[in-house]
Design brief:
Layout lengths: L1 H40 L7 E8 L2 E2 L7 E8 L2 E9 L5 E11 L2 E8 L8 E10 L2 E13 L2 E13 L2
Antiparallel strand pairs: 1-2, 1-3, 1-9, 3-4, 4-5, 5-6, 6-7, 7-8, 8-9
Length: about 160
């Protein structure tokens, strides 16, 4: 009887160990190997790096004290990074960006890094090459007043060589 219980215990524990090992290996492949491979075979445009706003609503912002920046990291068509802008109170707000590239469009959401902010931003930008400069132009959706969503069209970001 004791040998039966020992055999049953060894069988159950070995199957649990094998299942845990299989799950760990599959998660490693899903999170590390597949994104690495997708990045190696991706043949679309690369937008990783630093981006700065050039124009908003038809106003050239290069010479003004306004600042909106994107810092992006790309793995295949998946983009992550940060977005920051200087608000009217001269405080810099930072956001975590998650998005994708598809058919020369960059679609992303930006969530505040701070738990003290409740707004979020959605970006839809078209990627193009104008006069040998990589440009992303499009619009943003954001919270204007509590419960009110507003949009800004005509935003243009330019890639900064980094």
């Amino acid at each position: 009887m004791d040998s039966l219980i020992i055999s049953l215990g060894i069988g159950i524990s070995s199957s649990l160990l094998a299942t845990a090992l299989f799950i760990l290996v599959s998660e490693f492949f899903r999170r590390k190997i597949l994104p690495w491979y997708a990045d190696k075979i991706y043949r679309g445009v690369r937008i990783d790096g630093e981006w700065g706003v050039v124009e908003a609503l038809g106003v050239n912002l290069k010479d003004q004290n306004k600042s909106m920046t994107l810092s992006l990291v790309q793995r295949g068509d998946v983009i992550v990074g940060t977005y920051s802008h200087r608000d009217g109170d001269e405080e810099i707000d930072e956001y975590i960006v998650q998005g994708r590239i598809r058919d020369m469009y960059f679609l992303a959401t930006a969530i505040p890094k701070s738990n003290r902010h409740v707004d979020a931003i959605t970006l839809l930008l078209h990627i193009s090459n104008v006069k040998s400069k990589l440009i992303m132009a499009g619009g943003l959706l954001y919270q204007a007043k509590p419960g009110e969503v507003d949009s800004t069209l005509g935003i243009e970001f330019q890639w900064k060589k980094s």
